[in-house]
Amino acid sequence: MRIEQLGDGEPEIAVVGGIHGDEPCGVHAVERLVEREPAVDRPVKCIVANEKALSRNTRYVDADLNRVFPGDPDGDAHEERLAAELLAELRGCTTLSMHSTQSYTGTFAVLAEETLTLARSVCPYLTLDAAVDASAFTEGRLIEHAPVIEVECGYQGSEEAIENATTIAGEFLGALGALPTGEPHSEGVPLYRLTHLIPKGTAEAYDVPATNFERVAAGETYATVDGEALVADEPFYPVLMSPYGYENEFGYSAELAGRLGGTTAGDDRDRSEYPG
User: Using CA atoms, how far apart are residues 57 and 221, in angstroms rounded to an integer?
Assistant: First the structure.
């Protein structure tokens, strides 16, 4: 794990990249931030997390880091030990964790129930297509154990994901008062709530005609398995849906749950309200 700091004093804000070693966008964003060395009004901790997995360009070495929090300092797996170390470094910090996907080229935040209040204040300042309440599926994830906003920054390995991560890191620091901030999105950010996993049986070929965050109507085909159509029993919004992104599921079903922020919400808060 590599740690740098912007500004003087004890950081109450952190930005993290490289939770997964095959998702380099957040690492580039952290490195750009450190190289630029902006004058910050609040100190910021900049972290590149799983250096060992990054050096191998693999998601993890022994175990998925974002499924083993809070970790174990005496654990057998590299990621178990790293999770405990990273969580200790983030104690007292409000954190942005940057990721990428194999299913969506845009950007969206992933939240836990405990971070929804924070997200209502911060997410309207970020360039996001959506926010996802993943409270039913947070076991072992960092967002379950710390005030963290996790952002999927684009398609894994793409230059666009790097640019998105860089932009969002700056916006996050602006929203927390470390850098000058822009205007919040006047319409807020649409919020979706995950309801269940969409399983994927063993087959030779898969296809997903459904588009993430676009409503699938009852009776509409959302995926095919060896050419056989899978049809929605009821309307839903697909999230993280792709043919081959997960081994045993296509992705998630979600419901539309409202908006974060907007012209009458989240614009006039005191940024020091969320010190970590």
Answer: 35
pLDDT tens readout for residues 104-155: 999 999 999 999 999 999 999 999 999 999 999 999 999 999 999 999 999 9
Residue 240 has a pLDDT of 95
Look up tokens 């910021």; give the residue: 44
25-36 and 159-175 helices, crossing angle to 10°: 50
**Closest Cα partner for 198 from 210, 187, 189, 186?**
210
What are the structure tokens assigned to 73, written together? 């300092």
* Residue 267 scores a pLDDT above 60: no
Which letter does DSSP use for residue 115 in this model? Answer: G
pLDDT of 216 reads: 98
Longest dimension (CA), the chain: 59
Four-way CATH pick for 2-188+260-268: 3.30.70.3550, 3.40.50.720, 3.40.50.1820, 3.40.630.10: 3.40.630.10
Q: List the domain boundaries for the chain.
A: 2-188+260-268
- The H-assigned helical ranges of 60-186 are 78-89, 116-122, 159-175
Digit-coded pLDDT (tens) for 158-179: 999 999 999 999 999 999 999 9
Q: Which of helix, strand or coil describes residue 221?
A: strand
- pTM across the whole model: 0.91
Helices (H), 66-187: 78-89, 116-122, 159-175
